[in-house]
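Quick note —
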Amino acid sequence: MMKEIDLNKSLFDITEEYPELIPVFAGLGFAGVTNEAMRTSHGKVMTILKGCEHMGIGLGTVKSALARHGFSPKS
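Predicted structure written out below.
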């Protein structure tokens, strides 16, 4: 069963709930997600949607990666 993930939640909240996603987000180009200080500060105000826009990462790419790791993204 796929785990549902809200793309409007902060990266901090998502990675606290699902720490296994930290390397997934890092691999997608979410700079700083592996740095605990950055994740706990900037990650609290950055959502997946904002991060995609800010860093030029395609939302489809993120959704596909999340699906490959057992997550069903919702916005």
